[in-house]
Amino acid sequence: MALDGRDPVKIDDALRPAMFDWLCRLGDNALILGHRTSEWCGHGPALEEDIALANTALDLIGHCQMWLGLAAEVEGQGRTADQLAYLRDAMAFRNVKLVELPNGDIGQTIMREFLFDAFHFELLTELSTSPNTRVAEIAAKALKEVAYQLDRASDLVVRLGDGTEESHARMQAALDHLWPYTGEMFTADAVDTAMTEAGIAPDLSDLQTRWTATVKDILDEATLTLPERRFDVHTGGKQGRHTEHLGYLLAEMQFLQRAYPGAEW
Amino acid sequence: MYAQMIKSESSNDDPQALAEFQARIDRGERIEPKEWMPEGYRKTLIRQIGQHAHSEIVGQLPEGNWITRAPTLERKQILLAKVQDEAGHGLYLYSACETLGVTRDELFEKLHSGAMKYSSIFNYPTLTWADMGAIGWLVDGAAIMNQVPLQRTSYGPYARAMVRICKEESFHQRQGYSIMMKMAQGTPAQKEMAQDALNRFWYPSLMMFGPSDAESVHSTQNMAWKIKINTNDELRQRFVNETVPQAEYLGLTVPDEHLRWNDDKQGYDFSEPDWDEFFEVLKGNGPCNEERLGARRKAWDDGQWFREGLSAYADKQATRRTAAE
Ligand SMILES: [Fe+2]
Ligand SMILES: [Fe+2]
Fold this sequence. Notes:
By secondary structure, chain A is an all-alpha fold.
């Protein structure tokens, strides 16, 4: 029995390292995007938006706790979700580069959320019927919240894209800036392939097809233009090769745990 | 208390109408938005509720300062939810203010220009994680002390906002106390941070109730209107009586060498805060006035294109709908 009384994860021991990595990708995406989103708290462009952003951040940190908790269990070294979040260095983080980029203006924050949510939604939809029940349980819980986040972000992308000249220009600039980071979400490596072959995770190229359709629809409605540039210029985050930004984010996030090792809070 | 030194506005209304209005309040009736009210009552309420709303919003900043550095995932969630609650309190209170005929944008404008104030407490810096404990425990604690009686205030929308807000504030206070408890029972370094936070926040928390107003004409008028229920000194005394045993339980020392239990008054004798410092902070000379107001102005200015974009889209949609009809 796992500590929380649930069934232990049933997997082949040979799959453990890949599954640990893969779960860290899920958890780290949520953690790092949640962290970035939480930076807006108290600084939003309108009170309602401030509250909504805090909600999104709260949801994501909740997802991160579940994924990293499961990752720690799969790893079987006695680590906890908190230890994974607070005591790994950048090269051990497995999030895509897209989520660690600085927020930029609120338009860039919303555009990033939209591009990621559209992927996250498709991924969780698939995982919620994964034969691995522990994975399916977490995905189903997270999916409800992510469906709402995707609706909200899509709606804002449309309204700001088709708003004023300035809001249109800002949203287009945000899209152009973020676009070359989006391909990483769909670039499969040995870990992804192992998880797909084990039947736990979906094929990323199927997700890409649906993601592209959603993104095209919404950007169309928003009167924004899909960049012609390659979308997979900036990859490597999933393997621990990050941008310069992640180190600063971690220095801030992990400060207390690093400065006072072993203290309880 | 988030509203400090609220001056009452005089009313030039018909004396008979004023007397009837006062009689309603004395009978314990609630005043609702559409009903007649003296101009002075309305203006004073706008000032008080507006200042309270601004305090919630500016009050997000000192704690927001630690969200990205919270030491565990759970603490991060609790703090984020707390600061989000404060934004929600701002929202309820701006809505209550709008029922008095002033828009949220007008109120923001007055906050940004310095024409309206927010509580002095939020001009103090948050220097360590223990400050998240001290703020929840002391600052939310002092806010509760003030706001619980205001659930019985005469203006309906304000009273109802207070009921919702008070429930959440007691959560905040317990969460703050739990942080203090962990730190006070933690490593020597943590205990030192906890004591330091208490040392820095004790007197600013006492200042939250405002200077003694027992003799003030504004206070008398506001109390007659039931916009204010207790004097500042009464509330401060209650706060000290309740907080000192909590500090003792934590094993921390209240930074007041004159603090003593007084059997005759069944309350503590304690030192007054430095009121010169208080007035300096109100004038803009506190440690963080510029940062706090600067951050609010920046959020507003940076968000202008966003708000304009949304309203331009709403206009386009309205035009499209009319064209389609
Ligand atoms: Fe509040
Ligand atoms: Fe509060």
